[in-house]
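Sanity check

After download, print the first record. It should look like this:
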Amino acid sequence: MSSIVLLGSTGSIGVNTLIVAQRYNIAIEALVAGRNIDLLNQQIAIHKPKMVAIAHEADRHKVNHDNIFCGAEGILSLIEMSQSSTIVNALVGYAGLAPTLKATSLGKRVALANKESLVVAGAFIDMSLITPIDSEHFGLWYLMNERPLSKLYITASGGAFREWELDKMKDATFSDALKHPNWSMGNKITIDSATMTNKLFELLEAKWLFGTSSIDAVIEKKSIIHALAEFKDGSTTAHFAGVDMKLPIAFALRGEVTEEILPPTDLLAIGALEFLPIEAARYPIWNIKEHILKNPHLGVVVNAANEVAIEAFQKEQCSFFGMSEMILDAYKKFEDVKAKNIDDIIEIDKEVRAYVE
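Expected C-alpha cells:
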C-alpha cells in the first residue's frame, strides 16, 4: 500500500494512524476532519495531502489547502476521486456509514474504526473489504486461528460509573459520564462506554465480522485483556495488550507486523485480574443483548435512538438512565422493522430519530 485516505484525522484514531503511516512511509492522499481546523492545518503541513475535506463550508477559509471538499457530499466525492486502495474510516457516528458504503462500492478496502457502519448496515456491507481497527475485534481475529470455536468474548472496562452506587447514577451528569477510569476518548464513545451501548455495538460488529452469534462480553477493569476465544476442545485463550490503538492500526494498514509496536505486557505490574458480569441494573441496554444478536438488523434502531438520547443527556433534557429508557422504548416500538436495502436503512434511521425526539 503506497497511500491512504484518512477520514477523521483529528480524533485519537486519526492521530495514531498518522503516526503509524509515518513509521511505514505510507503517503496520505487525503485528510478528512470536522471542526478542529488548527490540528488539521498542522497535519496538512506535515503530511501534504493532495485533497482535504471538512464538515462545514463556513470553515473553508481557515484551511491551508487549495483543494478542499465540504460536507457529507464532499467526503463522498473525495473518496471517489482518490487513487488509494485503502480508506481509514475513523469518523464518529452515523456520519461514517455513507463513506464506508461508497468506499466498498468502489472495491476499496476499509480499515474501519467507525462502529456504527456495521451496527446500522452490516447486512449490506461486503465484509471481505473490511478490516476492523478496534482492540477487541483485532484481539478476536488474532486468537481465532481457524480452530473450531465454541464462543467468543470481548471485554468491557465498565465505564465511568462501574463503581458508583446505583442510586447515585440517577443523578449523574454529562461531565461525570466523561470521566473514564482507563483512558481518554471522544465524548460519544465515552458516554457509550458508561451505558455499555458501545459494547453492545461491538458484539454486533463481531457478529457481522466473524459470522457468529455465539459471543458475549464481560467486565475486565484493567483493560489489559481485550478478547478471549473459547474453543470446542474446552480451552480458552486470551489476548493481552496495552491500551494503544497503534497495534490494530498497524495490522490494518500493513496486513502483518513483525516488529515491536507496544512494550510487552508486564505481568507482575498487572498482578491480579478480575472478571465481572455486565448487569442490566447498572447497564439497562444489556436487557436487549440476546434479542439483538438474533435480530442484528435492529442495530439501525438502537444507533439512531442512542445518538438522539446522548444529545438529550448533554442538554440536560434527560437523566443518565433516561438515555437507556429512550433507546429501549424505541427498540420496542420498531422491533418489527427490517430493511431490505440501504434506502430502507436511511428511512428507518429518520423515523426512529423523529420518534425519539
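If your output differs, re-run the checksum step. Summary of this record's structure: The mean pLDDT is 94.
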